[in-house]
Amino acid sequence: MCLALPVEVIALGADAMATVNLGGVKKEISLALLDDVQIGDYVILHVGYALSKLDPEEAAATLALFAEMQAGGFAAP
Amino acid sequence: MKYLDEFRDGALAQLLARKIAATAEPGRAYRFMEFCGGHTHAISRYGLADLLPPELRMVHGPGCPVCVLPIGRVDMAIALASTPGVILCTYGDTLRVPASGGKSLLKAKAGNGDRCSDIRMVYSTLDALQIAREQPQREVVFFAIGFETTTPPTALAIRQAQKEKLANFSVLCCHVLTPAAMRTILAAPEAEQGGGVALHGFIGPAHVSTVIGSRPYEFVAADYHKPVVIAGFEPLDVMQAILMLLRQVNTGRAEVENEFVRAVSREGNLKAQACMAEVFELRDEFEWRGLGVVPHSALKLRAAYAAFDAERRFDVAYRSVPDQPACECGAILRGLKRPQACRLFGTVCTPENPVGSCMVSSEGACAAHYSYGRYKDRH
Asked: Rounded to an integer, what distance in angstroms lies between the CA atom of residue B335 and that of residue B52?
């Protein structure tokens, strides 16, 4: 029910609507719950509405943390 | 897909598992509750429980909207759907939830020899609005269920209906609040938590938190001294959150931490919150399946939007109905029992023919275990 997917905004339309790329499928969704969404942004799509923008830098930082762990084995916590 | 595949890497999950095993102190018991059905589903689907050391057990929480919907609310939806002229729009998850007298929305849609109700599965409130626009001679009622993820879309739809003067659109509001459910779990006597063992921490919701932020969980740390780590729904997110919880417990900390920083802030989505606050207000109380009647735990439409409130427009009232006596959904939703402890699990009660709500939605603890774990139990 609360499941949602990260999708890429590929076109902006009227009335806060937008077209997104959902794993290769184009879909019309509403951006009415967000401000300042640009083409190329990733948003979390839930029941037809974008709930949140994904922060690419924070995502990269989380992945870097994992990569660091992989490279260096792991130290005691 | 980007932002999904990277967080499903099996080798990294194994690495995190080793790190978790090295961090868990031998001889110590850790019980963490994943509040959300989304996490329950991820844990079952990716077999994460098998990657955890024996000291650590995950306890399923009540964060599955379909699971906590009481029979009486589904009865109301069926009553509305059988009202002449009504089209009932609903998310697909509710269709198979068992109601009184062996009924369900799916059975009402199919009919039972006489007339069938006009029940339509919609993906979005946008679809329900469109049906109302196209069929002005019919009454379109949206069965609004869910936590804070589905609530802003319902609020927007109601605002839009008012703007367009869609007089034939209304909402049966059954939206519930995550923090209220967490408080109910925490307020239960410690002996009742986590199957007779106290809980040591919570994995906080992913998508609910994108809306409400991390701030509403701060009472868990402040009032109950339990750590919370908000996590994404992918397997690496869950493993990382477990590691963060372990570190907090080992060092005696109780804080709200955020693993899902790529989508969640402390404040959350203020625009969505403002939208909800404009349209909805707190109900004095609401009955949850499993948790019972919980004060200030759900929403209703404000007086300014009363015209769109199906409970005021139609002659329907909530009536409490006890669960099937042999069904353990209540105890499972409070984290007291595991699905496999229910006598009905996998025999009488299956996803095709559910007796209790936890077997309906894929995020339900019973459905998740049935889909991904039931064969393991036999070996």
From this structure: 18
Q: Token digits for B70?
A: 């009481």
> What are B100's two structure tokens?
């009184």
Report CB contact under 8 Å: A46, B153: yes
Q: How many helices (H) and strands (E) does chain B have?
A: 16, 13
Per-residue tokens: B203: 């994995």
Domain count, chain A: 1
Out of B11, B147, B261, whose CB is closest to A2? B147
Contact with chain B for residue A21, Cβ under 8 A: no
CATH number of the CATH domain containing A45: 2.30.30.140
The rounded distance, in Å, linking the Cα atoms of B137 and B27 is 67
Could you tell me if B52 and B19 are in contact, meaning their C-beta atoms sit under 8 angstroms apart? no
ipTM given for this complex: 0.91
Outline which parts of chain B fall under CATH 3.40.50.11740.
1-328
For the stretch B101-139, pLDDT in tens is: 989 999 999 986 668 999 999 999 999 999 999 999 999
In a domain, A25, yes or no: yes
**Shortest CB distance from B149 goes to which of A2, A6, A63?**
A2
Number of residues assigned to chain B: 379
- In this complex, the residue of A2, A23, A32 whose CB is nearest that of residue B1 is A23
Q: Which residues of chain B have pLDDT under 70?
A: 112-114, 190-197, 378-379
- Tens of pLDDT, residue by residue over A60-77, are 999 888 878 777 665 444
pTM above 0.90, yes or no: yes
- CB contact set of B258 (below 8 Å; sequence gap of 6+): B209, B214, B229, B230, B264, B266
Is residue A44 in some structural domain?
Answer: yes
- Tell me if A47 and B127 make a contact (CB, 8 A cut-off): no
- The architecture that CATH gives domain B1-328 is 3-Layer(aba) Sandwich (3.40)
Domain of A50, in residue numbers: 5-72
Question: What are the φ/ψ torsions at residue B110 (nearest 5 degrees)?
Answer: -70, -25
